[in-house]
Write a structure and sequence with these properties.
It is built from 17 helices and no strands. By secondary structure, it is mainly α. Helix 1 runs parallel beside helix 6, helix 2 crosses helix 14 and helix 7 packs antiparallel against helix 12. The protein starts with 7 loop residues before the first helix and ends with a helix.
């Protein structure tokens, strides 16, 4: 019999609930145990962040760079612009709405982590390289592999990625609920947990509403480009939305997304290219969540920020999250480095970001894959005639028919050229 296992989301919810309850009853000695664990785990996570960036981003950039053709370039550009747009939509909504939801009291803006609880001991684990250096190195190495086509370096990058992914799967993800339990245990002990949870609920409500708005905007644009009813187009994508809601995986939802996209009339060749590609590079829902959560936490913590800071954050994060799909908690793990280097997030802010993000993980995935259908519609409109022309060319002009090196059969060279002319 297959062993039953809880998914990450139920474990996170359980950890938060237990932390909120037990923080009111456990003695200081027990809380210090978790303070000690969180200190060690937090230092290890800080050590791992640059390695996560190098391990995930390098092969992702190399794979994208090795692709060729206008279709790939245009699809990637549309996906990137949409992801960036969702980040700005989230940011400007957040700075407009969140201040009224977040009480500006010292009890909220100075959320106590383990600052007020002394651990039994600490272990210093300094990172081998800082975050920005790892970002620059990953981009440089990834682009270099793509440009020179070095198979040895590509294999090394892929193998290092496997090590990083296995570390996330075997060490980080299993211990993450214990880490989050410790954070909420301490907040409950210091009497701040209830206020934080109330704000979390309000923030989640705003982010869910933003998801719906983003999908409507995406399909209104797709409808305007294709001249079709956007609501009908969106309705055809609902099977993909609800499948992603249940699986929390863009990759696992690809067959359903592909079927829904074909139902919207997208050409099979274009759908078969754009849907798997966008499952990797299009993360508008994840961008929306991370940006909104970052704004909310910075307001809660009383951290200073400005629009210029978030412009750089969003533009960089949209590239970083190319490495996210297929990795457990991939989007938020890929974002930790940018949160640290650009927004100045420390250990506790990162822990709260992880907790807040994962509680909405399935909604972000559902938004990502549904938006893939909108991108496929736009790409189909742009390239349908070209695809039809290429098919007609292959039908009327067999390979080598008019090449200089081949002998002509019954068709003359001028006749072959006539078949190549577009309608």
């Amino acid at each position: 019999m297959k062993k039953f296992r809880f998914g990450l989301l139920p474990r996170i919810f359980t950890a938060i609930a237990l932390g909120l309850i037990l923080g009111n009853f456990l003695p200081m000695g027990a809380i210090r145990v978790f303070a000690t664990f969180n200190g060690i785990f937090g230092n290890f996570l800080q050590f791992l962040i640059p390695l996560i960036i190098i391990g995930l981003v390098t092969p992702a950039i190399a794979d994208i760079g090795r692709g060729a053709g206008v279709l790939l370039a245009i699809t990637a550009l549309i996906a990137y612009c949409d992801t960036v747009f969702s980040g700005f939509l989230s940011y400007f909504t957040g700075i407009s709405v969140f201040p009224s939801l977040i009480e500006k009291s010292s009890a909220v803006t100075e959320i106590a982590g383990f600052e007020n609880v002394e651990p039994f001991f600490t272990i210093s684990i300094p990172p081998m390289v800082d975050v920005m250096a790892s970002l620059v190195f990953a981009f440089t190495l990834g682009l270099g592999i793509a440009f020179f086509g070095s198979e040895n370096l590509k294999n090394m990058a892929d193998e290092f990625k496997e090590i990083v992914v296995k570390t996330i799967e075997v060490v980080i993800i299993p211990l993450l609920p214990v880490y989050i339990f410790g954070i909420f245990l301490c907040m409950a002990y210091t009497g701040q947990a209830l206020q934080v949870v109330k704000m979390f609920i309000a923030i989640i409500g705003v982010i869910f509403a933003l998801h719906i708005l983003l999908l409507l905007l995406q399909f209104c644009i797709a409808g305007a480009v294709t001249g079709r009813n956007p609501l009908k187009l969106l309705a055809n994508m609902l099977p993909a939305y609800f499948t992603a809601l249940g699986t929390s995986s863009s990759a696992a939802t690809i067959p359903v997304t592909l079927n829904s996209t074909l139902k919207n009339g997208v050409k099979e060749e274009i759908a078969g290219f754009t849907v798997p590609l966008c499952a990797t590079i299009h993360l508008s829902g994840s961008m929306l969540k991370i940006t909104a959560c970052a704004v909310a936490l910075m307001l809660m913590r009383g951290m200073e920020f400005n629009t210029g800071m978030f412009v750089g954050f969003i533009l960089l994060l949209a590239i970083m999250m190319v490495a996210a799909p297929g990795v457990p908690g991939g989007a938020i793990m890929a974002a930790l480095g940018v949160l640290s280097s650009v927004l100045g997030f420390g250990e506790q802010e990162q822990a709260l970001m992880i907790a807040l993000y994962i509680t909405m993980d399935s909604f972000g995935t559902a938004c990502n894959v549904t938006g893939d259908g909108a991108i496929a519609l736009v790409v189909d409109k742009l390239f349908r005639k070209k695809i039809d022309y290429e098919k007609k060319k292959r039908l009327w002009f067999p390979e080598g028919c008019c090449s200089n090196s081949s002998r002509q059969d019954s068709r003359s060279r001028s006749q072959c050229r006539r078949y190549l002319l577009p309608d």
